[in-house]
Amino acid sequence: MKEAVNHSWTDSITSADIVISVMVIAALIVLWVSVLLLRVVRFYVKESINPTPFATAEEKEQRRLEEEARRALEKNKPTIWSKLMQLKPIEDEAELVMDHQFDGISELNNPTPAWFMALFYGTIIFGIGYLLNYHVFHYGKSQEEEYVAEVQKAADDKIAFLASPENAASAVNENNIVLSKDAAVLKNGQALFATRCPPCHGDHAQGLVGPNLTDEYWLHGGKIKDVFKTIKYGVPEKGMIAWEKSMSAQQISDIANYVLSLQGTKPAGPKAPQGNKE
Ligand code: HEC
């Protein structure tokens, strides 16, 4: 047996490391504060030796104008939104007018917005990738292949599940079911049969759309395992429902035992035999 080794980077940190880290941080803070103090002192000394004169009214006006010009420049910068929408400022409209007028209304030749072009080229690039992936190099599975693989996997899982003795013991299935004549089982099976099966097999299983279940003739086998299997998976193409979707394994087991207990009951109006005699 190999021991699980679980090293984490926190394991190697000692208290000395922590003390050193704290001291380094403290030293950095002290350094920063002293630099700030030094700058204040320098400014103070400089101003006392050679004081800056107060700004005159003209200088103030000059600064205000500069500031205003800077602001105006900033305002004209296109925003992300107008870039994305490829919006042109209203002043440029004259350049956009096309030689196409109707009823005094003229058309503008606005460019296609950037987001739309990105989407457009994006779909082309995606399409090429998709084509190469699924149809040229077959790296990816197509929908049908994925479906088939999933169904196959589910079938394999099911076989594996039923093959495992633990699962087999906890759930009845077509491999481990045994015939039971237990009164409680048959009673339960009868109740289940009465609510689900008569529309097709008749009140007494004499057969209607579905075959007579009381005779010795079987289409899909008359052993308990066969009957269980037919009820569980159904015969969908022939109209017999797969009951595993709406009944538990135990219920199907009870019903299968009940069906076999009806052998030879000879109900009135039996449907003609179907299948092989067993
Ligand atoms: C919607 C109609 C329908 C219902 C409801 C129905 N069955 Fe069926 N059943 C059929 C048909 C049709 C067949 C014949 C399939 C074939 O031709 O392969 C059949 C066949 C069977 C068979 C196999 C008979 C043989 O000869 O091998 C069994 C067992 C069976 N049904 C049991 C049941 C039980 C139990 C129920 C109730 C839980 C039930 N059925 C509900 C239509 C139905």
Automatic annotation (TrEMBL):
Transmembrane segments: 18-38, 114-132
Pfam family name, one: FixP_N
Keywords for the protein's UniProt record, in alphabetical order: Heme, Iron, Membrane, Metal-binding, Transmembrane, Transmembrane helix
Gene Ontology MF annotations: electron transfer activity; heme binding; metal ion binding
The keyword Cytoplasm appears for this protein: no
Recorded superkingdom: Bacteria
InterPro entries: CcoP_N, CcoP_N_sf, Cyt_c-like_dom, Cyt_c-like_dom_sf, Cytochrome_c_Oxidase_Subunit
Gene3D superfamilies: 6.10.280.130, Cytochrome c-like domain
Location of the Cytochrome c domain: 184-263
Protein name: Cytochrome c oxidase cbb3-type subunit 3
Naturally occurring in which organism (per UniProt): Pedobacter westerhofensis
